[in-house]
Specification:
2 copies of one chain form a homodimer. By secondary structure, chain A is mainly alpha-helical. Helix content of chain A is 77%, strand content 4%. Chain A contains 7 helices and 2 strands. Chain A has a two-stranded antiparallel sheet. At the A-B interface, α2 of A face α1 and β1 of B. Chains A, B: One of its GO terms (molecular function) is monoatomic ion channel activity. Chains A, B: One of its GO terms (biological process) is phototransduction.
Amino acid sequence: MGSATIFFWLQLPNVTKNYRTALTITGIVTLIATYHYIRIFNSWSEAFTVASKDGGDYTVQLTGAPFNDGYRYVDWLLTVPLLLIELILVMKLPQAETVSLSWKLGLASALMVALGYPGEIQEDLSVRWFWWCLSMIPFCYVVFTLAVGLAEATSKQPSPAAASLASAARYLTVLSWCTYPFVYMVKSVGLAGPAATMYEQVGYSLADVLAKAVFGALIWAIAAEKSAVEESGKLLPN
Amino acid sequence: MGSATIFFWLQLPNVTKNYRTALTITGIVTLIATYHYIRIFNSWSEAFTVASKDGGDYTVQLTGAPFNDGYRYVDWLLTVPLLLIELILVMKLPQAETVSLSWKLGLASALMVALGYPGEIQEDLSVRWFWWCLSMIPFCYVVFTLAVGLAEATSKQPSPAAASLASAARYLTVLSWCTYPFVYMVKSVGLAGPAATMYEQVGYSLADVLAKAVFGALIWAIAAEKSAVEESGKLLPN
C-alpha cells in the first residue's frame, strides 16, 4: 500500500493537469490504508503471543488485549468514498455530473460502511445478518450505479486503449466490491474461533489490495493513456 | 488530517501564485492537527487499559496516567488563527484589509482559546461557566465579523461557482465554530465520568475534522476555481 502511494505520486508530473487530482486521491487512499494496516498489525501482535516451551512446538495464546477490527472500518469510512471519487474524476465527466455523482456515491458508500460495523462486532448471528442486510442496500445502489454508469462512460473514452482500461476498471470494481459481503458472512454462517478470524482477516486484506492498490494502478493507467491522447493533439483538452 | 495536508500541498502547482500562500497555510493547519492528534491518541492509550480475563468480556480501567487534554488547546492556539488567515487570504481582499483583518481575527481567536483552557481543566461548574462566558466574547466577535465579512466578500467573487463556494465556506465556518462551545458545555451541565469525557472527545474531534480538513477542502476548491477563472483570462489577476 505504501509503495503504491509513492508510485502514484511520483507519476503526477507524467499526466496532464486534468488527471492530477484523481492520481493524488489514488495515493491518499493507499496512504490511509498503509496507516491503518500498521495499526492493525500492531493490534494483532499485541493480542496474541507465539512462543515455544523448551524449544518444542510453537503455540499461540491470547494476551488479553483485544484485536481491534475497528481500524478497518475507520479506514473504509475514509477510503471507500475517496476511491469512488478518484474513479469519477478520471472519467472526466461534465463538472455538474462529477459533483452530483461524487456526493451520491460518496455518501451512500460511507453509509454502507457505517451500517456494516454494528454487525461486525456482534457474536449474535441474527444481529449480524440484520446489519449485513441493511448495509447491502447502499452497497447494491453503489455497485449498480457504477456498473451502469461505467458502461456508458466506457463508450465515450477518447481511444480504444482508454476504453479497454475503463472496462477493466468496471469489472475490477464489481469483483473486488463483491468480495467484502462474502468475507463478512464467514462469521455469520456460524464459523467461529481463530480459524474464522484468520479467514476473515486474509479475505479483507486481499480484497483491500485489489480494491485500492490494483484498482489504483488501473486509474493511473487510464490517466496516463488519456494524457497521451490529449498531448498528441487527437483531442484538445476542454 | 495528514492526508488532507498532503492533498493540499500536492495541489500547490495547480493553483496560481495568488492562492499558494493560502493553500500552504491550509496544509500547515492540518499538519499541526496531525501532530497533536498523535499526541492525544498516545495520551489516551496510556490513560486506559482494555483487557479481558480468561477470554471473557473486555473491561476498561484507568492506569493512573493522566489523559492530557492540553494538547487540544495548544493545537487550537496555533491552528485557529492560521485557519482564519487562510480564509482571509483566499478571499483576495485589498492588501491593507488583509493585514488588518488577519491581526484582528488572529489575536481575538488566540485570546478565545486561551480563555477557554482554565475552565476546561476545572471540575467546579461555576468556574467552568465563568471562563466559558469570558471566552465567548472574542468568539462572538470573530463569528460575527466572519458572517458579515464573508457575506460581503461572497458578492465580489469572480464567478458564480466561486461565489457559491465562498457562501459554503461561510456556512461551514458558522456551523463548525458553534459546535465547540456546545461540546465544552457537556461537562458544565453536570455530566461527568467516562461517558462525558467520551462525548467531549468525539465532539471536539468531529468539529476539528469539519473546521480543518473539510473547511480546507473548500479553501482549495475556491483557490482552484479562482485560478481557473484567472487563467482563462476572464479576469486579470490584480
